Amino acid sequence: xxxxxxxxxxxxxxxxxxxxxxxxxxxxxxxxxxxxxxxxxxxxxxxxxxxxxxxxxxxxxxxxxxxxxxxxxxxxxxxxxxxxxxxxxxxxxxxxxxxxxxxxxxxxxxxxxxxxxxxxxxxxxxxxxxxxxxxxxxxxxxxxxxxxxxxxxxxxxxxxxxxxxxxxxxxxxxxxxxxxxxxxxxxxxxxxxxxxxxxxxxxxxxxxxxxxxxxxxxxxxxxxxxxxxxxxxxxxxxxxxxxxxxxxxxxxxxxxxxxxxxxxxxxxxxxxxxxxxxxxxxxxxxxxxxxxxxxxxxxxxxxxxxxxxxxxxxxxxxxxxxxxxxxxxxxxxxxxxxxxxxxxxxxxxxxxxxxxxxxxxxxxxxxxxxxxxxxx
Length: 376
Prior knowledge:
By secondary structure, this protein is mainly α. It has 15 helices and no strands.
């Protein structure tokens, strides 16, 4: 019982300290949901009266359902933005030596302290979102829009939005734990959001360039990128009977996996990691390679797409880009000009991986173009 009271007190204190964050979240959600929905509904009703009198109540119910669903782009933007702001403000103490020393000196386990901050931040979005979505339902009732038959659908929309918020929010918190500077944390968080889109772009374009029988696959980006997954969810949100339970459970499993990483980081993150670009030294090389390889291939593909169709120029531009990006990332770690030109093992590995990726596609090592299905 004492532990619960302590946790609640810590959450209340966090809410008071960051009082402007839930207020900002509530205002943004109010603009994106009840205010925006009310204005659009009024305009739609007036349009139906003036332009299309045969617009039935059923048509209006379907239109309203799609308007307030997961496909609402404004709500999506606010969700991602709030996840970024709440995650960064809640764990910005990790980037200050004084605050880190203070919080680590408290008689509270680091993992428990992290969990309380994590839950407190999550509630700063979830509670205002549910309240504002309730106002949206009241707007529908006021305009006599039929919503009773789609009750489960509206509940699904709420659950999916909260699920993707938690995904973006958890990734942001992980970025804060892995970095020691606020700007580096923001960059890494945005990188987590969009990295899959970069990888998807590289894979798709390399397949188009080297494989004569390749057909683009839209779903690959959704698997690799949370942003792409959220966008894809918006596309299918208006369709009836589209509830992929396995897909949602997979996203939830990813959130749980990242949360486990947070517990590990909270336990082993050194206090002196504050104000370093990357908190864990061993992560520096991994991040550099992860940035340099797809980044170099993307640079080479951009050169290729802009007229340099000779394969030698493509390969050369990829290798040069790998070296430059590796040097630039090393410089960003230490902000020392001597680091820019210092050759490291990770730079060599990045160049070799880029060359290896090109060789795999150029020589069709997977046998993609030569594959023939067995006769049935």
